Amino acid sequence: MQSLSALSRKRRKKKRKSNEAALDPRIAERARRVREKEESQAVKRAVWLLSVMTVVGVVVWLLHSPYLAVKEVSVSGEVASTASQRVVNSGLIEGAPMFSVDTETVREVVLSDPWVAAVEVRKEWPNTVSVAVEERYPVAWVLTGDGWRALSLDGEALDVDPEQVMPRITGLAGATLDLAHPSIGPALDFVEHLRPDLRLGAVIEIHGQQVTAQVANRVVRLGRPADLDEKANVLVVLVDDYTDPGSVINLFSPLRPAIYRDTPG
């Protein structure tokens, strides 16, 4: 027994044929061609949609497959930092899908280590994540209210061996300094530009807007904390060729240095 819907379709089809028979043959042919074109387009749309869904399915499968999983995490430049451990703490592990690796998150976690100055995280398809670390290094000891702190060139406090020999920076007559003091940065830059053999025993005193140094048994009046890198370069030449231990060197202007030598009393 046929259903009502089947009978209804038959009646509509019979009525359509009856109407076509009543139409002009040319109109009926045109109507037939229009129907065929619409049916062809419907089939093409269905095939296109199926193809797109198939491609999407393949891509989703591929992204989650072992073929595009992390097989190697390469960390370079790590010496004093804990970059490798922090990479693991970020959630980046071998076997994770490459597409799910959030390079910015990994970067931020590694940068949270005080020893890390900069880091670059790159995906190297299909299976490697590269983490390149640039580490800080201690430049000088600075005397603060909490004791001696080892600072990097950009003023970051680092945890180092208390016995490590480095230049020392204090306030006047060994007073403590606030790490936010504006002259600490230029003083660190001055130390960085000294030759290594002059750097180790150097002592820098910051008092108000003036900076004084003791380098290679010479007293160096540096004046305001400006152009200290240039003053350091000039000082190296003066120590080597123009001064003796015990001399006082005035470098308020690095282009016009003045030298005062001790004379026998």
Your description of this structure?
- Helix content is 38%, strand content 24%.
- The longest helix is centred in the N-terminal third of the chain and has 39 residues, at 25-63.
- The protein has 7 helices and 12 strands.
- Strand 4 (138-144) and strand 5 form a beta hairpin.
- By secondary structure, it is α/β, with parallel strands linked by helices.
- The model has no long low-confidence stretch (mean pLDDT 84).
- The termini are far apart.
- It has helices at residues 4-22, 25-63, 83-89, 103-111, 184-192, 196-199, 228-241, and strands at residues 72-76, 116-124, 128-135, 138-144, 147-152, 157-158, 168-171, 203-207, 210-215, 218-223, 248-250, 258-260.
